[in-house]
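Researcher: I'd like a candidate sequence for this fold, 498 residues long. If you have to choose between options at a position, lean toward the conservative one.
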């Protein structure tokens, strides 16, 4: 059983903690000793999982641009090498590229040192095998080893410097060359202007990929890695970040803009008019691309996707929409499960920008997603069309709002589940409330034109003592009407700060 100290490091299927000072009230807990214990825990877990002794293992290690990254990589590398592991130090690298080392380099496992879009003072460890990212239960085993001080037998391994990102970039270039298949095969993006916003994470490499293929990337922003993130949070869900890439497209008169989070497992895009291709519109575009050659296929999304998106996938694209739960690993695991059942599912995608395609090992890779979008843009230009044409019929809400209610009770999960159960019973009898028949997380209720003309979803956060509430309406003032209806229930509950 994990104690409170080690339990706090578990963040879904990742490990995260405070790595450096600099934020008031957040003390460093991801120390060198703790990191070394976690590295030993992963070696033991990986050895058991793949059936090899530690001295037979090869593990790749990469990092994002955080200021604590180099020290953590050094600790992890040296700790694993003392256990006999052959360590490939890939230095600055994207998270998806670390998974790809298990494919291209035959690594038994891989570790990415990252905390995604979190502040500069935080960092963490994300693990891969050839089967993909680890499950939450695997993380618990690793942390239990760390807590118990379990260590592999000490022997002599090795640490090698490997520039895997160069190979990964060549992989992306080959995909674009084949996908566009232009007369000038090696420079298929000549004549296009595409700007990149890396937010000072590790995504700046993508501008080089585009330039090598002939694209003009002048006007790109924040390509240089800087672990203090001085310009904006590297996060496609962040308003300031999206404003930055939208401005870059307009100022540069670009054909497209792309933006990544810190470690490039998420991506977003902007059309030539400077409008966001994000959230529901990004899902719609990715679905249209994924369903080519997969007629009637199923698209798995998270729970907060709009009613208009469901209609677009099923009526416009002829696919099936499987609305599942929040959490990128949840949607990916569901996509894998459906395919194992014989259900054609080419895409699992979360509105946050995590998009995993079956053709790409169901790996959530922001660079791969943007690569597919750029290929489609180039293909459409040959037909005299634009990327905006694909999602032109997508109905988006007139109003949308998200409210995050803090749970006040210590056992926040039990409190949230109780409120969800009570709300479900309330909705079953409330006049004008229509419970969704395809909901798989929290409570989703729709309302007719006279009752708010939209829907709400109240759910329990994946990790935190929070109950997020999402509301959308197709009418002006509809969100307020729906909020008023829901408040009549919420004011009777206990345990929520409303």
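Model: Candidate sequence:
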């Amino acid at each position: 059983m994990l104690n409170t100290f080690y339990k706090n490091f578990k963040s879904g299927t990742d490990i995260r903690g405070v790595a450096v000072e600099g934020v008031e009230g957040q003390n460093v807990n991801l120390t060198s000793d703790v990191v070394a214990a976690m590295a030993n825990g992963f070696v033991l877990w990986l050895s058991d999982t793949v059936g090899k002794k530690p001295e037979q293992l090869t593990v790749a290690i990469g990092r994002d641009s955080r200021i604590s990254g180099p020290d953590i990589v050094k600790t992890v590398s040296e700790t694993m090498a003392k256990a006999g592991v052959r360590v490939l130090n890939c230095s600055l690298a994207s998270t998806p590229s670390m998974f790809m080392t298990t494919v291209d380099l035959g690594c038994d496992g891989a570790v990415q040192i990252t905390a995604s879009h979190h502040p500069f003072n935080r960092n963490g460890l994300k693990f891969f095998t050839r089967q993909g990212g680890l499950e939450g239960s695997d993380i618990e085993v690793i942390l239990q080893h760390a807590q118990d001080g379990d260590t592999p037998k000490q022997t002599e391994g090795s640490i090698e410097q490997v520039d895997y990102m160069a190979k990964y970039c060549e992989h992306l270039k080959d995909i674009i060359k084949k996908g566009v298949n232009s007369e000038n095969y090696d420079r298929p993006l000549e004549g296009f202007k595409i700007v990149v916003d890396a937010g000072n994470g590790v995504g700046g490499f993508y501008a080089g990929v585009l330039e090598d293929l002939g694209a003009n990337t002048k006007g790109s922003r924040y390509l240089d890695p800087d672990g203090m993130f001085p310009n904006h949070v590297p996060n496609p869900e962040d308003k300031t970040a999206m404003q930055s890439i939208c401005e870059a497209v307009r100022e540069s008169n670009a054909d497209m803009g792309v933006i990544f989070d810190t470690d490039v497992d998420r991506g977003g895009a902007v059309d030539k008019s400077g409008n966001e291709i994000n959230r529901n519109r990004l899902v719609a575009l990715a679905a249209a691309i994924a369903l080519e050659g997969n007629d009637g296929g199923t698209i798995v999304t998270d729970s907060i996707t709009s009613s208009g998106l469901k209609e677009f996938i099923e009526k416009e694209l002829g696919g099936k929409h499987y609305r599942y739960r929040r959490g990128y690993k949840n949607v990916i695991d569901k996509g894998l499960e459906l395919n194992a059942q014989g259900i054609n599912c080419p895409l699992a995608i979360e509105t946050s920008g995590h998009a995993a395609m079956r053709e790409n090992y169901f790996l959530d890779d922001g660079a791969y997603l943007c690569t597919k979008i750029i290929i489609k843009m180039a293909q459409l230009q040959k037909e005299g069309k634009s990327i905006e044409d694909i999602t032109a019929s997508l109905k988006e809400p007139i109003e949308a709002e998200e409210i995050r209610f803090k749970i006040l009770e210590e056992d926040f999960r039990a409190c949230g589940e109780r409120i969800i159960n009570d709300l479900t019973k309330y909705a079953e009898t409330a006049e004008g409330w229509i419970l969704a028949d395809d909901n798989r997380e929290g409570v989703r209720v729709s309302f007719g034109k006279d009752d708010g003309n939209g829907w709400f979803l109240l759910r329990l956060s994946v990790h935190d003592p929070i109950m997020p509430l999402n509301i959308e309406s197709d009418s002006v003032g509809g969100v307020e009407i729906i909020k008023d209806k829901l408040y009549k229930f919420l004011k009777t509950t206990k345990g929520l700060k409303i």
